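Open question from group meeting: does this chain pack into something compact, or does most of it stay loose? Before anyone orders reagents, we agreed to write out a predicted structure and look at it together. Recording both the input and the output here so the notebook holds the full record.
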Amino acid sequence: MVLPLNLHHYFGYFLKRDVTKLYISIAIRNLALGMVLLFEPIYLYLYFEKSLPITLAFFAVMYGAYGILAPFGGKIMGAIGSTKSILLSLFLYFGYYLSLFFLPISSWFVLASLLLIIPGMLLFWPAFHTDFARFSSQERRGKDVGKLNIMGLFPMIISPIIGGWVLALFGYPALFMVVLAVLFASIIPLFYSKETHEVYTDSYKGAWKRAWKKENIATSIAFVANGLEVIISFVFWPLFLFSLAITFQSMGGIASFALVIASLFMLYMGKVSDTQERPWLLNIGSLWTGISWIITYFIVTTFDAFLAHTLYRLSRSAAAVPFQTFFYEKAAGKGTEVDEFIVNREIIINVARFFFLGIAALVFWFFPLLPINGIFFFAALLSLGFMFAGKIPKFSLK
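Structure tokens returned:
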């Protein structure tokens, strides 16, 4: 089927928001990170002498510190503006991957990497989400979310296969050098991008109180479910592939092909997400994402991984676009408190990630023989939690 694309609407939001600078910078950033994200957990796993608990503890500290300090990210964004906040974050991401490059030289670079990536996340994510919530169109927010995902995914389509190829032929040092070069290139456009300012008014204590209000329980469940499912995909999925002795080139190829299919599908999902079918689409996408995780448990070969991950990406796309549309719609509906809402989201998601990864580290520490893919059943359950972002379906026994 040929998808009808109106190029004027496709680029309307991005041109309005100075895409030639800010979002091209983010696209280049995604190209850089796409080459290494799939292989980053494996690199740390190997550095920590194949200790899964220590690897999980590293990520637990990263996300836990980010969640605790998230209100300060909002304060900084309010003080310097979202564009400068993103600009500074790129320098910190650069330092993070440079620290990973130097890990074999000294274990002190483990601490350095954390001290760089945590403020990098603080500066990037609140600014990015706030910026999009402010400038996306209310009438076409679903389409805008679909396009945002395409802008993010398009450069990442080829990057995993490039990263796998570089890694297989030249090793991790060469991969980090390529990533650093591309990441540095992403900094340049931001020196010429227009600035926008938000006024972040929450106190640190106020932000934490707001994050756990009872009236926000459904939204919080959706945020936690989405955040934890993403972490399983980011950390456990590549480690599982590595345990199956699937080559780095094959991993990159699997990821790239699945992203091609997902990108095409997202264009259609964005259009449907602006209709009354959005809740239904979210629920179906959530259900199929859960099923795809159960199927992933039974992978034993490279071809199995290829089929299962392609199904996962398709299912995840069906859920992700309406999920993010609901999120940005709720954020934009907060008016002047959009940045406070987004910071609250970052607190909830990353504190939950800290506890999840910390508990998982303890479980694998005391039960090292547990199969890593057992966590995929939990991911399947989490996928159903996406439904709390919209209208949860009601089932009757009649």
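Observations to bring back to the group:
The CA atoms of residues 99 and 111 lie 9 Å apart.
The radius of gyration is 20 Å.
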